[in-house]
Amino acid sequence: MGSMFRSEEVALVQLFLPTAAAYACVSQLGELGLVEFRDLNASVSAFQRRFVVDVRRCEELEKTFAFLQEEVQQAGLTLPLPEGALPAPLPRDLLHIREETDRLAQELRDVRGNQQALRAQLHQLQLHSAVLGQGHGPLLAASHTDGPLERRPLLQSPGEPHQDLRVNFVAGAVEPHKAAALERLLWRACRGFLIASFRDVEQQLEGPVTGEPATWVTFLISYWGEQIGQKIRKITDCFHCHVFPFVEQEEARRTALQQLQQQSQELQEVLGETEHFLSQVLGRVQRLLPPWQVQIRKMKAVYLALNQCSVSTTHKCLIAEAWCATRDLPTLQQALQGSSSEAGVSAVVHRIPCQDMPPTLIRTNRFTASFQGIVDAYGVGRYQEVNPAPYTIITFPFLFAVMFGDVGHGLLMFLFALAMVLAENRPAVKTAQNEIWRTFFGGRYLLLLMGLFSIYTGFIYNECFSCATAIFPSGWSVAAMANQSGWSDAFLAQQPLLSLDPNITGVFLGPYPFGIDPVWSLAVNHLTFLNSFKMKMAVILGVTHMTFGVVLGVFNHMHFGQWHRLLLETLPELVFLLGLFGYLVFLVACKWLRVTAASAASAPSILIHFVNMFLFSSSPTNRPLFSGQEVVQPTLVVLALAMVPVLLLGTPLFLHREHRRCHSRRRQQPDEDTARLLDLPDTSLASQGSDEEKAGCPGDQAEAEFVLSEVFVHQAIHTIEFCLGCISNTASYLRLWALSLAHAQLSQVLWAMVMRAGLSLGGKMGVAAVVLVPVFAAFAVMTVAILLVMEGLSAFLHALRLHWVEFQNKFYSGTGYKLSPFTFAVEGD
């Protein structure tokens, strides 16, 4: 947990990898996930790098894997997860994997092609059998009638040229949605010189491509003349009809039908054997493909990482640069030595200086990952900057609970999150693909604390589904009020409302032990009391939260050695914030402690005091809360205003003075350096070309880039943002008050209009039991949908805004970038 408060120290290392062991070394680094490689070949295109051929081989294998996986899914099968840790395969094993993959792919293509051909042939036989089996009896009977009117046309030429015409047949099958159009087109094109019969096939036939059952329509067309026959064949071809030979004799048709059925049975047997062999091939694919996919993915990642390395001048080793956590350097050195031991030359790790800002590395676990994700969504922290995530673990659920405080609602949220936490190791839960579920599951620990804190604030508000609970005896006594006030039956009948006076002895016995007294839920001024209480509570929490953010900035200044910012920025910010709004919190606490029930009628107004503080005036009707208040208020305003020029000009002037002093010091430095170099031996001049000396120091670069105008503009923006932000941010925390009241009132409305109305409907026990079932169901659905989901999302977003805008901008820049280590682990594992 040490790295949670500040990002870990990260160093830039140079790796010297022997060429023979470079693949093994990078593969081991991928298993460990310790380093992030820097691209040393950024100016080289991807097609000109050293290992581009190997990357292409892996990509070709991935394409073949995609084909095999698609075939498996098409067969309705699933690929199992690979078992155990699979290392990246050696380069010599790639040829074996490629040969086996190509062989399996070719077998699948051949078997699948044979299966499709057999299915198409079987489909043709089934359609042909259906055409022959339909009969179309009336049409055949009409073609064989012997009457003179049926054999020749009504009008014939003297030479009777049509005497040798005979009736021909075209039989086939067509899809149902094309049958009507085909019939109309045949009638119009042939002008009635045909007789067509269309019938639906009684049994659905399996499609050769999709495998789904489909209905077909068979047709039998009789016509006269060769030209009509050509038209009919062209039309049926346009409609993609299946045309089959048709014989007129019934006995011949029966023989042909028997032959077709026998051929269909033989084809079905062959098709069954083909599908059995296909299932065997798919079984081998299921067994071999998952580990191959993992191994080739690792191999491709290794070659992509090697493409980022540069080659030494002797071509005996590869040189890589990588970011690595300082605490992992011994592990890195040990892993490289173990991987390169077989090559005879050990890999070398060399730490080098760098002027670039290192990446940010913050290690998380299941519990802290969701809170760190909230912070990183605003921006990844700068290197070695204070990390707000540990404090967000407490403040975020608490601010959410302030707006969502209800024991019942918090308990439901807590139980839902607890169920996800207890089932987090189940494979079905972890591998669920529903996006909404994965969002909730990723933030299960956040929801757990949000529900727990909501239960706590619900006990403080004394609300459980908007109903108060009397856990402890009330601090108000109605009996004492009735005895000492002389309430009679006539008085009680005339007064719809009764007042409890705490000044009467025995009426107010003392504060409620924990939370708000349940008697307030019966009072007509309940909302007024909660309004005042929650508004003051929101201001106190807001000022405390912002002050804590400013104090956290102290640790940033101390860590980065910016001691001048403690006096020129942090101290003026604290004086300005606490002098104005810290004083407002002091007035609230002072009024709570000093004003009693006896003096409540003449209690001073905090709002009037706070307005008079900025107007440098006083109100005679508004008595002071403490002695010397008239002097303290103007002093605090003047002191806060005096901090503005200090905050605006202090840092730029200090940096300008430091820059001028360093610049004058560098002017005197060249003469001394020249005299020193003349006295040194010649061998020392050759050592000035090392990488360490060429790197320079970060301080020199900062001094060279110093521009007073830019620093002044930046500081002016920071000053204006902070001073105006103190006002707007304090007002922004009033959303705690507003959303808390809204949630309580919405919960109360839902209870009154649903549950209370349902309880009042049934007078008898049986009627009440029947009525309460749908009423409780409606109440439960609306509670979950409106109060838990909608109101919970609203409170979550407002708590997120309070952390990002009002809290984190006091000390957190969020201008860094994450350390993305080279690792084989898949995100979410």
From TrEMBL:
One GO cellular component, as annotated: plasma membrane
InterPro entries named among the record's database cross-references: V-ATPase_116kDa_su, V-type_ATPase_116kDa_su_euka
Domain of life of the source: Eukaryota
PROSITE patterns: PROKAR_LIPOPROTEIN
Coiled coil: 246-277
GO biological process: vacuolar acidification
Main location: membrane
UniProt subcellular location: Membrane
Keyword terms: Coiled coil, Hydrogen ion transport, Ion transport, Membrane, Transmembrane, Transmembrane helix, Transport
Any GO molecular function: proton-transporting ATPase activity, rotational mechanism
Membrane topology: Multi-pass membrane protein
Keyword Coiled coil: yes
Residues that span the membrane, as ranges: 398-423, 444-461, 504-525, 537-558, 570-590, 597-616, 636-655, 766-790
Function: Essential component of the vacuolar proton pump (V-ATPase), a multimeric enzyme that catalyzes the translocation of protons across the membranes. Required for assembly and activity of the V-ATPase.
Family label: Belongs to the V-ATPase 116 kDa subunit family.
PANTHER family registered for this protein in UniProt: V-TYPE PROTON ATPASE 116 KDA SUBUNIT A 3, VACUOLAR PROTON ATPASES
Protein name: V-type proton ATPase subunit a
Gene name of the record: TCIRG1
